[in-house]
C-alpha cells in the first residue's frame, strides 16, 4: 500500500489518528468529517495515498465512488436526508486542503443552512458551445 507519512488521511488509515469510521473495505475507508457542513457529512478515501482526482487510478476511483454511494444510501435511510451532495475538490484553487484524494458525502436536508459558493445562472450559449468543442473527445 502506498502511504505518505505526513498525510493526515494516511495516518487515519494506519490507525495513528482516531476517526469516527463508518465504512471500511479492502480499498476504502469512510469517516465523519470533523468540520461537517451538515449532520452526517462524511469523507470517503482510498487506503492508498493518491494526491487528487487527476492522479487516482480508475479502479481506485470506482471503489471510492461505490463506497460513497453506500454511505449516501445510509444517510438517506438512517438520518432522513432529503438529498446528497457528492463533492471532490481537486487542487487548492478548488478548495482542496488535504492532498489525499477524498470524496465528501454531504447529506442535505430541506432546512439546512449549507449553500454552495456560487449561484447558478445561465451561461452564454456560444461560449458553452466553444468550450464543449474543446472538451469533446
Shape designation:
globular
CA-based gyration radius:
17 Å
Beta-strand residue percentage: 15-25%
The ordered H/E elements are HEEEHEEH
| Rounded mean pLDDT score | 93
Residue share in helix: 25-40%
CATH architecture identity = 2-Layer Sandwich
Oligomer: single chain
- The name of the CATH superfamily reads HIT-like
The total strand number stands at 5
Q: And the CATH topology?
A: HIT family, subunit A
Unreliable runs, pLDDT <50, ≥5 residues? Answer: none
End-to-end Cα distance, whole Å, is 33 Å
The tally of structural domains comes to 1
Structural class of the secondary elements?
Answer: alpha+beta
Quickly name the level 1 CATH class: Alpha Beta
How many helices does DSSP assign? Answer: 3
Largest sheet: 5 strands, antiparallel
Domain HIT: 8-115
InterPro entries: HINT (IPR039384), Histidine_triad_HIT (IPR001310), HIT-like (IPR011146), HIT-like_sf (IPR036265)
GO molecular function: catalytic activity
Active site: 102
Describe this structure in words.
This protein is an alpha+beta fold and 137 residues long. It has one domain: HIT-like (HIT family, subunit A, 2-Layer Sandwich). Helices cover 29% and strands 18% of the residues. The protein has three helices and five strands; from the N terminus they run αβββαββα. It has helices at residues 8-14, 58-79, 125-135; strands at residues 21-24, 28-32, 42-46, 83-87, 103-108. A five-stranded antiparallel sheet has the order 1-2-3-5-4, with helices on one face. A hairpin with a 3-residue loop joins β1 (21-24) and β2 (28-32). The model has no long low-confidence stretch (mean pLDDT 93). Residues 8-115 form the HIT domain. InterPro entries: HINT (IPR039384), Histidine_triad_HIT (IPR001310), HIT-like (IPR011146), HIT-like_sf (IPR036265). One of its GO terms (molecular function) is catalytic activity. Pfam families: HIT (PF01230). A motif (Histidine triad motif) lies at residues 100-104.
